[in-house]
Fold this protein.
Amino acid sequence: MNVFFLEYFLLTVTCFVLMDQGKSSRSCGLRSFPCVLCQKRTKPGERRYVCGDAYNSFRKYLFKNFMIKVKETDVSCSRCRNKYYRSNQASSNTVSDDVVYQPPAKKAKQDLCSPKHISLPLQSVKGPSHSSCCICKRRGHKFVVVPSCIRNNVFIEKNVIVPAGSRCCPGHIDGDLLKDDAMTQISDLKSECQFNRTDIFNLLQQVRTIALKNQNKRIDFDSDSFISDADYYNLLGLSRGSFDDICSHITDIRNTKNRSLRTCIGIYLTKLRSGMSNRLLSTVFNIGIDSIKRSIWSARKALAKEFTSNYIGFEHITRKAVVEKHTTDLAKTLFGGPTDPVILIIDGTYIYIQKSTQFSFQRRSFQHAQKEAISKTNDDSHINRILCQCIRSIFQ
Ligand SMILES: [Zn+2]
Ligand SMILES: [Zn+2]
């Protein structure tokens, strides 16, 4: 009986103690400002009353996620607020991403290639190698992959296969073409080439495309077989060798798909020789009239900059060179003295002019004595005087 009484007493006391603790914790809670969400005591600096308008969305968040209805006296800690901001930001990001986000295109699975079983008696460059140039065989690491248009071009011109993925020095490539010296450097070839079905199919397709493109070409200065030596002279007034020489000086014209550097210079020289209108040139060369205009403009600019200035005009030669290389001993004895002067003999009676295509002007300008189209000046002495003054100012 005593034991029961003792137990009852202890239980009652425990209950009272617990009730008292509860009371004290409640009274302490009001003073310690617990966070409405995590119930932890908030520090004065980070404590915010969340009943204001600024916290509307935070209150909604609390109600939606934790079923907490905020009272006027409730505060929140900075940790819970930051948690809310972060979740809010993450959700807004995913929403905006959904609008713009596009899944990355999956890498197309490589087509299964059939093994290279077909052996054809075609010469081929060894390779492909990453560490050496397939043309000059130099070893290094700054190489570029040979573009397919150049590989096709090498096949058509030299009947040599350059395997896909072969690399060469960037210096061998000029636009969409391989430079002439690089073309001659191709050596050390395999006598057989292995193909698979896809390789042969691609080769046929590419050759067909080139054949279709070339059927529209009429005059092509790029291929040696297209125009004969006589045609070169008839069109340009120059032999093939002289034309090659002029082209080798020019670097300022870009090779494009429609017209190469040689075509550009060829069009310009044809225009100079024949005096054809741009419209007529566009028909002859099968190039658009705008392209013809641009070709002529760029050829004229490039020739004036890189060719003419080296051979014509007073700038192309120095006074010293005239005295040392272009003065005869006779002239030195007759006119020279201790000062080593520049001796020039000038005859300004006639001025050579380009033969015109216009018949009446041709008749007027043709001089029977000289058998050439020249214009006779009315006042020889005047022209001579002007020339002498010009030259004296330059060479003295
Ligand atoms: Zn909190
Ligand atoms: Zn090379």
Q: What stands out?
A: Residues 133, 135-136, 138, 168-169, 172 surround zinc ion (ligand 2) (CB under 6 Å). The CA atoms of residues 5 and 23 lie 27 Å apart. Residues 10-29 have pLDDT under 50 and may be disordered. Residues 229-312 form one domain.
